[in-house]
Amino acid sequence: MRKTKIVCTLGPACDDSDTLRQMIAAGMDVARFNFSHGTHEEQKARYDRFVAVREEMGVPVAAMLDTKGPEIRLGTFKNGKAELVRGARFVLYADPCEGDEHGASASYAELYRDVAPGGTILLDDGLIELSIESIEGTDIVCRVVNGGKISNRKGVNIPNARFSMPYLSPKDVADIDFAVDNGFDLIAASFVRTAEDVLLIRQQLERRGSDIEIISKIENEEGVQNIDEILAVSDGIMVARGDMGVEIHFERLPAIQKMMIKKAVAQGKAVITATQMLESMIHNPRPTRAETSDVANAVYDGTGAIMLSGETAAGQYPVEAVRTMNSIALTVEGDINYSGRLRSRTGATVPNVTNAISFATCQTADELHAAAIITVSKSGRTARMISKFRPGVPILCCTCDERVRRRLNLTWGVHPVVIPEVDSTDGLFDLSVQAAIAEHMASDGDMVVLTAGVPLGVSGTSNLLRVEVIGNLLLSGTGVTGRTVSGSVVVCRNEDEVLRLCSEGDVIVAPYTTNKMLPALKKAAGLIVEQGGMDSHAATVAMALDIPAVINATNATQMLKSGMPVTIDAARGTVCAAKK
Q1: Residue 480 pLDDT > 80, yes or no?
Q2: 273: β partners
Q3: What cofactors are annotated for this protein (predicted)?
């Protein structure tokens, strides 16, 4: 099960139900809707199509609305494009006009107030550079430093500038209302500079009675400098390397990315690494080696999610891009020593009950080689606190709220499911264990670590940890060979019974073993022997024949009955009742 989540941007390339089905099957966990483009009518049609496919497939893929934010763009050009020549004069106008090689309008009419002669203006993700020579009224007169072709509505970036424009535009407010009205799970807030920007969105949501979670996109120097205060009021962050890479020197980006991921993980907040991860797959069916390493390094850094933009929104290979992202993440996760990383977190937690229980849960699961961590959470907070320790064991979060389930689909390592509400801890844990079995995360004989809060249903009260073996534990002893096997028991009390009663695939139960029994032992699926000691005949035979065995199984011949189906877990030295 992949731990790092995949965010996919929806657009014209996947505006059909079949492609969406294939993207979800390939590993899409969150669908991103970019409201910098398209009308509400277009996005509504796209969203309704996505929801219909999601419901049809019965999956909790979350929907994230990405706001336009206080971005600045050029207006339109005659014939849709122009070419700027190095050394030429180019003017940015406050009033709307049709642009050409001599000038164009900017979407922010007050831009002339926030820039000064000697400053730099970058167009089209930094491909074109302008130097500001003078401010003449509302016109910004520039000289082209690096020329190139430019087209309609390309982005405008001014490094290190602080703009006086309000953070929330009327369009952003309308888009936030759209998210509330249509049941979006997440809002990605563009160009967040300070905590106040996030709180403005939070206030707008509260006015609508909504608790949609906010992912703050860090895209400029001011946002990087204020990362701690932004994280404190956000539900997560996005390392938005597009505009960030334009406004901040590119050689600083890797260190900034690692810093932001580390801070978000430490606080149990979502973190998405985005932009140009598999950019070449917009046109090619395979990624470049550099892109593969970029995705891999983000996973090694511990990012919670990796994002595809143009690759799935407008590319020729949207499904292949998701499959590629999934494959890289799975391969890298298989190379990470999660146990070592967990041990290094000792002493690095804030001292409170939830943190202590969450860390102890991860440690216990790691040391006992548990099949899964099962958490019961009303709000999803417990699952996030466990996730921040990045355990190697899969995390199953059982919640009663479908909205919480979808939001948790962005959380690293968490597989969320919905269960009915019950009013007892034992009943809740029973349902959770059943869910783990149904989701193929555990089976009879597996050990699981459960955590929840008491009293039930109260958010933020995680204070309970329990270790259970799934199924009916019949007996335990010392495991040999470390494998798991199921079969039907044949109880034998001596050599003659072993040779006479045992057939191919039986689980032989005996007080001891001898060389005379070898013909029957070679046919056995497993051994349960009362005799103990790793130097015993039974242990030696089990290792020589590679048969899962439990030795030192006191009173096994009295406790077990012939014909009984059992599961031997030789890694844990347990014998459980198996389903017939």
Answers
A1: yes
A2: 239, 306
A3: Mg(2+); K(+)
Question: For residues 103-118, b (16+ Cβ closer than 10 Å) or e, as one string?
Answer: bbbbbbeebbeebeee
With 0-12 / 13-18 / 19 or more C-beta atoms within 10 angstroms meaning exposed / middle / buried, residue 456 is middle
In 3D, which of 421, 487, 484, 420 has the Cα closest to residue 447?
484
Q: What is the pLDDT of residues 216-257, one digit of tens each?
A: 999 999 999 999 999 999 999 999 999 899 989 889 999 999
Question: What band does 425 get if pLDDT is binned at 50, 70 and 90?
Answer: confident
Residue partners of 356: CB distance under 8 A and separation at least 6: 349
Mapped onto helix, strand or coil, the DSSP state of residue 374 is: strand
Q: pTM for the complete prediction?
A: 0.86
Q: What type of residue sits at position 251? A: E
For position 348, what pLDDT does the model report? 57
Cα–Cα distance measured from residue 277 to residue 105, given in angstroms and rounded to the nearest whole number: 32
Closest CA to 313 of 289, 278, 287, 273: 278
Q: Are 548 and 487 in contact (CB under 8 A)?
A: no
313, 318, 252, 283: which is closest to 22 by C-alpha? Answer: 318
CA dist., res. 353 & res. 351, Å (int) = 7
Say which DSSP state 74 is in: B
Angle between helices 40-57 and 17-26 (to 10 degrees): 60
Question: Residues with catalytic annotation?
Answer: 32, 73, 217, 275
Helices (H) and strands (E) in the chain, counts: 20, 30
Q: 456 pLDDT band (50/70/90 cuts)?
A: low
- Select 5-70+167-333's CATH number: 3.40.50.300, 3.30.230.10, 3.20.20.60, 3.30.420.280: 3.20.20.60
Sequence-ordered strand ranges (E) for 219-368: 236-240, 270-274, 305-308
Whether 453 shows a pLDDT value over 80: the answer reads no
For 474-577, CATH number?
3.50.30.10
* CB neighbourhood size of 565 (10 A): 15
Rounded distance, CA 103 to CA 96, Å? 11
Which pLDDT value is given to residue 350? Answer: 66
8 A C-beta contact, residue 26 and residue 57: no
- Looking at residue 349, its pLDDT comes to 62
**Could you tell me how many residues make up the chain?**
580
Pairing of strands 148-151, 236-240: unpaired
* Burial class of residue 402 (count of CB atoms within 10 Å of its CB; 0-12, 13-18, 19+): exposed
| Residue that the structure tokens 């669908």 belong to | 31
Q: Residues 210, 180: contact at Cβ < 8 Å?
A: yes
Q: For residues 103 and 187, what is the distance between their CA atoms, to the nearest angstrom?
A: 35
The one-letter code for the residue type at 5 is K
Q: At what angle do helices 170-182 and 40-57 cross, to 10 degrees?
A: 30
Which residue is associated with the tokens 């990605």?
188
Could you give the percent of the chain with pLDDT greater than 90? 85
One of 3.40.1380.20, 3.40.50.620, 3.30.70.360, 3.30.70.120 is the CATH number of 339-470, namely 3.40.1380.20
